[in-house]
């Protein structure tokens, strides 16, 4: 069972405005905590800003996963007034904040300055068992203002409330306790779960994997479609000449597995060897071994597991 180490961006310092050169230059600054490094976009009202001879954008690393984000405006004119918004985004989520630049009451923007808190996970998802493992609870704590919407997904598919699945979000000040309850657990519930919290200031997500030991969970009658229980990982030889991509999949009946590189099916040969071996009951370890690695081996790799009940996909970039 594992939780993703990366996290969505969050502001440690909201945008602030200062003047330089007797007001001819304006500097917007904020600090963002993020892993991996975020992509930054600035807007004036709804228009995305681009760098030019008057507009300079910077992002500097100032600590561990901490970034100073700067927008500089030179030769300031009254038409520069308006609502400025900065958006930071990485693969784990996004966050936004804004600040008004007004020279007179006439310049008051139509859009209100955004205040509050984009969702962040103060407690990452954890799994709790009840009723001798027949009932599972995924639980996490989220800080946000205004209230976030919370969505759970399993293997890339959105989880919906039904007889077996119940979702709750309980408020506690600006903190929210989110849970996903699964009843009558079977082995097909194994796999990667993602929870996404979103409000008008941004969104954040966190993941956790559910695995069962052999014979720990019941098997549905008639079998079940494949599910990747963990995201693919790469292992490199000491000299860097060979790489192994591997991922774990569960399914009944045993799935077949295909690998794709940048959208094209991988063909087995002297340099590329594919295998699918039983790891434990109904769990299989899929591997792609690449020898004498070349520059052209870089790119996206996709594993597709298929049986008569469905298929599943897992991707990794090399």
Automatic annotation (TrEMBL):
GO terms for cellular component: axon; neuronal cell body; plasma membrane. Residues 9-102, 119-209, 226-318 form the Ig-like domain. PROSITE patterns: IG_LIKE (PS50835). Transmembrane segments: none annotated. The keyword Signal applies. Keywords: Disulfide bond, Immunoglobulin domain, Signal. GO terms for molecular function: axon guidance receptor activity. Coiled coil: none annotated. InterPro entries: Cell_Adh-Cytoskel_Orgn (IPR050958), Ig-like_dom (IPR007110), Ig-like_dom_sf (IPR036179), Ig-like_fold (IPR013783), Ig_I-set (IPR013098), Ig_sub (IPR003599), Ig_sub2 (IPR003598). It comes from the Eukaryota. GO terms for biological process: homophilic cell adhesion via plasma membrane adhesion molecules; synapse organization. PANTHER family: CONTACTIN 5, IG-LIKE DOMAIN-CONTAINING PROTEIN. This is Ig-like domain-containing protein. The lineage of its organism: Eukaryota, Metazoa, Ecdysozoa, Arthropoda, Hexapoda.
